[in-house]
Write a structure and sequence with these properties.
Elements lengths: L1 E6 L2 H11 L4 E6 L4 E3 L4 E3 L2 H8 L4 E2 L7 H9 L4 E5 L15 E5 L7 E2 L2 H7 L4 E8 L9 E8 L6 H24 L15 E2 L4 H4 L7 H10 L6 E5 L2 E10 L15 E4 L2 E5 L4 E9 L5 E2 H14 L1
Parallel strand pairs: 1-2, 1-6, 2-5, 6-7, 8-11
Antiparallel strand pairs: 3-4, 7-9, 9-10, 12-13, 13-16, 14-15, 15-16, 16-17
């Protein structure tokens, strides 16, 4: 079956990669226009575009895909379905209704409708997440469901590793759905609206760490925002991103009398006292600097921490 694909970040590239290994022909790839990135603000291709060009696929980067012209172009190519994975544009008429549109959503709908489903699931301490293959409808993430797959979240997982797992799983599930549709044997089922939950985009408030919270919740926050956003603390006038932490099973004895928010240094190890429990900071990044271990950080900023 001839299909088109729309996606932008690495998640989309993983899904596209699975489609390229399927029996279906990707006739056209849509991705967001190249955007400025890096210190030099040079234009950067999306991961989907990089993969598509490597595979010699036709790539288009319209600011708006929901137009009669693009519907007509897909139909002229013989495209039967537009598949979507983290594209970055809200699809509207005349695209919706003009050609079947199937989405790979990075949660087990109807839970976690909206933006940042992976980050929100990790923050909430969920043990499982998953992917949903669904029809796209005008209302956000409400379309009927073809197929779902469950993916576990371990204590070692961060958002990056879950994106990888869900991208691969989502691509495989999407190919399975396309196979079944082509064979005429799969119809989507409506979502259970009574179980629907909605989530918001990640905000600055979600990124700032409060050591008044339990250690496990802060650890989940850090994992949810790694390696792409970053949780942070402010200490001694220094803004410090925190990329990796561990809930401490044992800590220096003096930590027992410290208040939440106080730091304890033991050799080259850095601990933070929380509302409940103690965290060890493992990997951090001072503003304007590179990622570094806590030991490296203390060699340059020990006095800042001791004065906090």
């Amino acid at each position: 079956m001839k299909i088109a694909f729309a996606g932008t970040p690495k998640f989309g590239a993983l899904v596209l990669g699975a489609l390229l290994g399927s029996r279906h022909e990707v006739a056209l790839v849509f991705t967001q226009p190249d955007r400025p990135a890096g210190r030099g603000l040079g234009l950067k291709m999306s991961p989907v575009k990089e993969l598509a060009l490597k595979e010699s696929l036709r790539v288009e980067q319209p600011e708006k895909i929901s137009t009669p012209e693009w519907v007509g172009e897909m139909k002229s190519l013989g495209v039967k379905v537009l598949t979507v994975a983290a594209f970055g544009q809200i699809l509207r008429a005349p695209l919706l209704g003009g050609i079947p549109c199937i989405n790979v959503h990075a949660s087990r709908l109807p839970k976690y409708r909206g933006a940042a489903p992976i980050e929100r699931a990790i923050m909430a301490g969920e043990r499982n997440t998953g992917v949903t293959i669904m029809d796209i409808t005008p209302a956000l993430d409400t379309g009927p469901i073809y197929l779902q797959r469950v993916v576990p979240i371990t204590e070692e997982d961060d958002a990056g590793s879950i994106y990888e797992k869900l991208g691969r799983t989502g691509g495989e599930a999407l190919a399975e759905v396309l196979d079944a549709i082509e064979a005429g044997g799969m119809e989507p089922e409506p979502q259970d609206e009574s179980a629907a939950t909605y989530i918001e985009k990640i905000t600055a408030a979600d990124m700032e760490i409060s050591f008044k919270r339990p250690a496990w919740k802060i650890a989940a926050q850090v994992r949810a925002l790694s390696p792409h956003i970053g949780a942070f603390i402010k200490v001694g006038g220094l803004r410090l991103k925190v990329w990796k932490v561990m809930v401490a099973e044992s800590a220096p004895a003096c930590a027992a009398t410290a208040a939440p928010g106080e730091f304890v240094i033991e050799g080259e190890r850095l601990f933070a006292v929380c509302g409940t429990g103690i965290l060890e900071l493992v990997e951090v990044q001072p503003q304007g600097k590179r990622h570094m271990s806590a030991a490296e950080f203390l060699r340059g900023y020990r006095k800042t921490i001791e004065a906090a």
